[in-house]
Amino acid sequence: MRRFLIADDHSVVRRGLKQILLEAFPSALIQEVTNSEDLYNRVRLEEWDVVISDISMPGRSGLEILQQVRQNHPKLPFLILSVHSEDQYAIRVLKAGASGYLNKESAPEELVRAVNQLLLGKKFITPSVAEKLATTLDQDSEKMPHEYLSDREFEVFKLLASGKAVSEIAEKIFLSVTTVSTYRARIMTKMNLKTNADLTLYAIEHKLL
Fold it and tell me: Which H or E run includes 100?
């Protein structure tokens, strides 16, 4: 019997994913969690065939949990499913140790194909991501400024660029206002920018929003 763990803080998303998986794997055991801490604890204490997780959840980000999970479960198939486009997150997610990346707008058949690929012990990479990986490997030029950001800094960067205030971000990702302000200062320094408007313009120009 296949064992799947779904991590997402939206009940509609969890229900939809569960239905898709049960149609493809009728006898599967499918469990759900709604935040990153529960995800980590369930992975730490139980055996799973595939974990399907969102990036943005209450508590630590999905990428942080992924990196922590990889320390003790390096071979656990981990599929990241997100609303963000592949251009924004796919390479970063794969470098963090994910087995695959899918946009939430992908067709149900694509999800099933991804899960089957992971069950075979392989990674799931769409043609567009494969092309982007090849391009990244071929490039000898320096990284773009946003590529020097840590995963958490990149998350804060995107929220700032989308127009959210520091207090809103702190509430959304469960950090203190002081901590988010510190992340903002680091982002500005690494990207050599001065204002939130600069961040927004950069994000728009590089198609990160």
Answer: strand 100-103
